Amino acid sequence: MFKKDFLWGGATAANQLEGAYQADGKGLSVADTMPGGKQRFQVIGSPEFDWEIDEEKYVYPNHRGIDHYDRFREDIALFAEMGFKCYRFSIAWSRIFPKGDEQQPNEAGLKFYDDLIDECLKYNIEPVITISHYEMPLHLAKEYGGWKNRQLITFYERFAKTVLTRYGKKVKYWMTFNEINSAFHFPALSQGMVISNGGGEMQNVFQAWHNQFVASSLAVKIAHDIDPDLQIGCMIIYATTYSIDSNPINQAANLVQNQEFNFFCTDVQVRGEYPTYTKRLYNKFGVDQNELEITEEDLEILKAYPVDYIGFSYYMSMVVDETSEETEGVSGNLLGGVKNPFLKASEWGWQIDPEGLRIAMNELYGRYQVPLFIVENGLGAIDEVQPDGTIEDNYRIDYLREHIEAMKKAVDDGVDLMGYTPWGCIDLVSASTGEMSKRYGFIYVDLDDEGNGTLDRSKKASFDWYKKVIETNGEELN
């Protein structure tokens, strides 16, 4: 059974729904340069990509998003109708500091989030804010080389202090970086590094992580100095991993995969120190420890200011196989793996594994004993609008029901779970493909992949279902 003050809600990201990408003094972000289409990551990952916008060659759905910047009151009202207890959103860094390295913030950007937060509070919806969610100012990527540059610690600290001071009296729940461990596979999003500015070198990735770890700890310090009751967490992708069989080689490979992807960043951010296997990681990825800029003061900061809770996304599990030459691969949330014959997959090939969520929760809580917050989980699917305007997304209901049932089991196992915010509670631009057709929301937005549509909002069948789930604190799932 979930606790009485369980935080039911939904999650979004500024760069995927706000639009208004140059309104009211906002600067360009790295997300603004990322084109739409199934080849999005392939384009960003090519050696030629250098953060330039080419509107003759590509479309950029993020520029318009779903016009949440102008329609947020309508959207928050719909969230309130569902009964949201909280709403996870992010602050666009380049709305507050357009280039990222300014001394003074952009007041118009701050005012927008004042209004958004107040609109949430009007309905007794707790804001849950991600300080940086895949949208660092473009200037910091182009002129400073992204997070491998130590100067970004200072810029982020100024940004975090600005928003925490401005909103800390109204907002209790915060996260420092979205899916910080995603840089293992794609540092463009979280670290502002592509091949042309060093993203292809793991030496830079690990230096960028260190700089982010220090910046995150400084944000924790700022938050707790403002109000010791503020809760500030880290945020990772968690992908439960399995060995393909009982072969000890595969079991050992699975152990390493877990340490690397699922635990490395949280070991530092929760425990406040680098884990014992760090040297092995450096050796594996060709990182020269002597070339990393890590000071004793840094290590003291990490130890003194660990995060209060772990936020994580869970969409899928993956299988590790080191012994078979012929295996069928599958795609996933920034990472892939070997096909699991026991699981079904979404239309985009992501393997659906509710029981894996229970395992993930037990693994995380057993390792760290800090509260968990599932801040992303959901099913990307093509939704069909019927002639009468209804959208029967029972496949989404089934997906969410099974994952909530797994959450219940984990809570019964003794896991301390704070809340649950399914991803894309309203349809928005996909991060992985820049598409609108890959929909997650309880609320349908009339907009297609080419940017055509009225932007009108309408309720899917899952809207009323989730409303009942919240009303009954997760007891009514049918």
TrEMBL record:
Keyword Cytoplasm assigned to the entry: answer is no
Catalytic residues as annotated in Swiss-Prot or TrEMBL: E376 (nucleophile)
User: What single Pfam family name could you report for this chain, choosing any that match?
Assistant: Glyco_hydro_1
**Which of UniProt's keywords are assigned here?**
Glycosidase, Hydrolase
Question: Family, per the entry?
Answer: Belongs to the glycosyl hydrolase 1 family.
Protein name in the entry = 6-phospho-beta-glucosidase
User: Taxonomic classification, please?
Assistant: Bacteria, Bacillati, Bacillota, Bacilli, Lactobacillales
